[in-house]
């Protein structure tokens, strides 16, 4: 009997419908005979009913399982005692307390969705979050059922000498037919989404960590043997993350062993399974010759993120999937803070906000907008979004801002003390924050339930006679799907006032909390509020939303003079950068508006850039941030109708103008920043600035093509090599076929580098890119079953503004055709790839029609997955 894998009618799950589990699982014992073609899973569940009166059937989730045996307390269960349904096994008359034993068969090799147990590149891997465990065995697959797991793995020893699962390795032995077994037991009760197993031929890099209380923890990173030399950054980041969580949150690791496995075949970045993290190899493997500085940074933050989940996610877990941000938003906040402490706080914050604006703001303004805590979903995998992760982190950050670091820590301590070992809600988190600090966070709850990005309008007025400055802040927010009315949110606005001479002024006035303070947090919690500052001797220039203290759009009603002032005087690194971005943005918008090419640099922008370029004292990474133009997407976000070509032309023209206006400085930077390769932050900042200089030089002076080719050939590290490669491949009309062939030839044994080769070609703003992408689908190295490769080609194409949004709709039709194919193999990735099409409302009428057409064509597909179906339905709803 095979239960069908997919349910036909989309079922909407509502948060309000939550009910506690009627049965609990005291213990799970799994015995798994691994075989790529037919794996058998024997499960013994100790089940216990929660209420005497309950005589309803027990429903266990299961998808794509062939049930071979079923026993209740050792006796084969008669057929009239159970029923197989769509996605479930129903026990019709379950006793109060019993052992259910099932034996099911699955086919890991046919699992292309990469959810549950799959077999790829010779390894068995699991991915159970969110609902993959039901593709392994019948179970109460929900995060609020916590059980102790023991698992015995059996496999052929030759190809699978390493057998891993959560917890402690208890025993191992040999079997007939060249097979062997290993027994693992996890002492910590956990929801099944944290279950994991890995089997394969893997080498191991070992190190250790001594916890604050003196326990030795074995650290093990499992990779294919030829990658054993590429794990140093991951191991180092893990040790630093462990020390940081002890130092900042007093959290120690709790098992004797922490394992990380790297695989090339993985749907997302990584997974925090208890004691056995499974990682996309992109976030583990790095050598200077194959990984860029950005890759190194990504490894540090993802390693830390998964490690931090051990407390925020695993020890304290989720009551239901609506609470996803309870672990994800909080853990992103923690990993951002870790990276800020380990590197440059200012640069980290700029990067975090850049990501938020690039992914979350558009999501919040489109048909897929949802609150940080959603109210309903069809497919939970569609809710691992920038809103749940990044906006969720911003909400935690605001709470941290208003409470202060020390009180926040007390709140976290109480949260862990109260809820260790429990499955809880966002409400429980807020209650702990309130309980420990005596503060009322009632208003903050709205941030979790109300979708959409608020706009804050600021207006200041200086009264020289009274020597008063009044600042009025007003908030508003546009409707989002299902939420036509928006209520005012509590918005902490960190601010300072600068004197015309560029000094932060003392802040005195009604809300005096420590006279003489030069920075203050104003809490805007009504639709409009005015603050009066007294004894203000000169007309001030306000610096608002410092450090980006709330995830809002700020409209300051500023002119370029104020922006230029802050660009040179603001001592808040974020706001200084923001002022520079504002100057550049205005230049671009004006050029697009007058459809001229931004061929001349506006005077104030010129002055601000000149000042940054001549400041040799400034941290090179920060300098690079200040000198980087806003992305095309960000410029588009500021327009009522996104003018794809206009934005591209204006930005290219501005880059050329910046290149030629400062040719000498860029050339001087390019020469003086050449240092032998080293892996530290200062060196990577220098590389970043140097490659930016090269980009400007090349934009304005074609003779730099040779220099770029030279850098491509001579670089001793992937950052410089790839920067040159990307510049060459993105040249609008250069013939770079020799470079493309050379790069492939050099790196074909390195999948992560070949991903870059695909991605850079698919993101080239060139007229032949679509034809190229079409051809790359047939390339021997393209593989539909490897998400990294699919994202490299198709994800990059969907993000390539001029090519994807080609006026004839060819980009839309191309992507839709590929999504149609991919949906048969991997619905999660297919649904992700479709999100650029969901933004159709932002374009002109013709593009709108073409994008909707592509969505409708897809919606008519037979066997549409739940994942893709939900994205399409929501995207088309507004039509
Ligand atoms: N918790 C996982 C994400 C699981 C995604 C499931 N579709 C990784 C993370 O956020 O740490
Ligand atoms: Zn996470």
Automatic annotation (TrEMBL):
Belongs to the peptidase M1 family. Residues 124-194 form the Aminopeptidase N-like N-terminal domain. Its cofactor is Zn(2+). Residues 452-555 form the Peptidase M1 alanyl aminopeptidase Ig-like fold domain. GO terms for biological process: proteolysis. Residues 234-444 form the Peptidase M1 membrane alanine aminopeptidase domain. It catalyses: Release of an N-terminal amino acid, Xaa-|-Yaa- from a peptide, amide or arylamide. Xaa is preferably Ala, but may be most amino acids including Pro (slow action). When a terminal hydrophobic residue is followed by a prolyl residue, the two may be released as an intact Xaa-Pro dipeptide. Its EC number is 3.4.11.2. The keyword Metal-binding applies. Residues 560-877 form the Peptidase M1 alanyl aminopeptidase C-terminal domain. Transmembrane segments: none annotated. It is an enzyme of class 3 (hydrolase). Gene3D superfamilies: 2.60.40.1840, 3.30.2010.30, Neutral Protease Domain 2, Peptidase M1, alanyl aminopeptidase, C-terminal domain, tricorn interacting facor f3 domain. CDD domains: M1_APN. Keywords: Aminopeptidase, Hydrolase, Metal-binding, Metalloprotease, Protease, Zinc. This is Aminopeptidase N. GO terms for molecular function: alanyl aminopeptidase activity; metallopeptidase activity; zinc ion binding.
